[in-house]
């Protein structure tokens, strides 16, 4: 039987630390977008302290999904779409189509979120704010060392978001004892909330952002597995830390009997906790969350098509810029076409079980992963995520389509 001879890349800890952290924050900040902020506050209002249990379970599922995907990409030394094509010719093109279409749809929302953040901060028209934000995102990919600049950009804004949200948490004074208790002994359990959080953290293009970034930086092979594993878990940890801080901040507001604004619940948390200053802080967090998600969505979506052609790979930066331009133009001219975004967004939820299922099959194909041995616990975790996300996605899509038509 032919086996793939696995290449190994020597890990230079000093030079690779920035790449590893860049992959961590590229994935984490891709997850922390406008939808992330809204979902967290809405579910906190619905479930109160019991939302802590939802976060706990979703973190475990997120880790199971992401560890599988990142480790198998590193072992195969190929991007997800190429792995898929090795399993079944044409499957990689289908996966790439799902990722690119879903990423483009969500990027319209990310551009809109950046415009909203700029509006809160400076009072400019959201469309002007969106345009300026798009120019900033495009500027990153105009640099020769775009990868390094992207790493530093997401790292900086990731720290800013977490620090400011922690400040708001401190201001809202949540009942911590109750939050901790209900995290392990919930009064009610919402499975839809669990699966929504899993999809929002590692669904669609998000989980591939860091994995493909490490591959582009040459961190791959079995000898790199400890760094890949640590990076994957840390990325989930960073996104989860932001989720926990925002949950506690929102719980502090809800526990006081205050009502969040249904039109912008995340902004309400910041404003009700810290007044006008809090509202401005929300603008910074919203802009940071949106602009880093714009960068992550564009980079990762294009990484799914650049291996299909030498010309595409050579012009990948230009295509990334075009991706951002198209997202911006659609928002500026059409806005967010609700029906289209809802349906395409629901389809995005199918990407995780499809892509993770492909990775799990690949993990046991020696022609793809060589001598790499997949831990059975990771396989079991992965199968669990595939099953529950598939059931929810099919149910959600059928329900949405029937309600729209």
From TrEMBL:
Its GO biological process annotations read: iron ion transmembrane transport
Report the locations given in the UniProt record: Membrane
Q: Which UniProt keywords apply?
A: Membrane, Transmembrane, Transmembrane helix
Kindly give the membrane topology term recorded for this protein: Multi-pass membrane protein
Task: Tell me which stretches of the chain form a coiled coil.
Answer: none
What residues form the membrane-spanning segments? 47-70, 91-116, 128-146, 153-171, 191-211, 232-255, 281-305, 317-335, 341-364, 376-397
How far does the signal peptide extend, from start to end residue?
A: none
One cellular component term (GO) for this entry is: plasma membrane
Q: Does the keyword Transmembrane helix apply?
A: yes
Q: Recorded GO terms, molecular function?
A: cadmium ion transmembrane transporter activity; manganese ion transmembrane transporter activity
Q: Which Pfam families match?
A: Nramp
Please give the name of this protein. Divalent metal cation transporter
Q: What is the lineage of its organism?
A: Bacteria, Bacillati, Bacillota, Bacilli, Bacillales
């Amino acid at each position: 039987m032919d086996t793939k001879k696995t290449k190994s890349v020597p890990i230079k800890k000093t030079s690779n630390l920035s790449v590893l952290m860049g992959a961590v924050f590229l994935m984490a900040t891709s997850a922390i977008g406008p939808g992330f902020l809204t979902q967290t506050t809405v579910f906190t209002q619905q479930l109160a302290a019991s939302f802590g249990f939802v976060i706990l379970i979703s973190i475990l599922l997120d880790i199971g999904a992401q560890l599988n995907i990142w480790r198998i990409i590193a072992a195969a030394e190929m991007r997800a779409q190429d792995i898929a094509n090795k399993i079944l010719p044409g499957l990689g093109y289908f996966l790439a189509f799902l990722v690119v279409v879903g990423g483009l749809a969500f990027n319209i929302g990310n551009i809109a979120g950046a415009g909203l953040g700029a509006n809160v901060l400076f009072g400019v028209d959201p469309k002007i704010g969106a345009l300026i934000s798009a120019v900033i995102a495009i500027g990153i990919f105009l640099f020769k060392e775009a990868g390094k600049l992207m790493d530093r950009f997401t790292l900086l804004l990731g720290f800013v978001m977490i620090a400011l949200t922690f400040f708001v948490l401190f201001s809202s004074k949540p009942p911590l004892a109750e939050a901790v208790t209900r995290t392990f002994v919930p009064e009610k359990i919402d499975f839809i909330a669990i699966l929504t959080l899993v999809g929002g953290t590692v669904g669609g293009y998000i989980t591939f952002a860091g994995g493909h970034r490490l591959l582009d930086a040459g961190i791959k092979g079995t000898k790199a597995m400890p760094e890949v594993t640590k990076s994957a878990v840390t990325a989930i940890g960073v996104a989860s830390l932001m989720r926990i801080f925002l949950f506690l901040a929102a719980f502090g507001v809800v526990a006081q009997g205050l009502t969040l604004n249904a039109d912008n619940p995340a902004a309400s948390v910041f404003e009700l906790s810290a007044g006008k200053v809090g509202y401005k802080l929300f603008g910074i967090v919203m802009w940071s969350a949106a602009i880093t998600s714009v960068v992550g969505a564009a980079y990762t979506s294009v990484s799914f098509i650049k291996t299909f052609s030498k010309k595409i790979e050579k012009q990948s930066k230009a295509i990334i810029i075009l991706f951002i331009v198209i997202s911006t133009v659609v928002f500026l001219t059409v806005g967010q076409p609700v029906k289209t975004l809802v349906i395409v967004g629901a389809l995005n939820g199918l990407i995780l079980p499809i892509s993770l299922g492909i990775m799990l099959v690949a993990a046991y194909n020696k022609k793809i992963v060589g001598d790499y041995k997949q831990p059975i616990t990771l396989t079991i975790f992965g199968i669990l995520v595939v099953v529950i996300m598939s059931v929810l996605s099919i149910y959600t899509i059928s329900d949405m389509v029937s309600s729209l038509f």
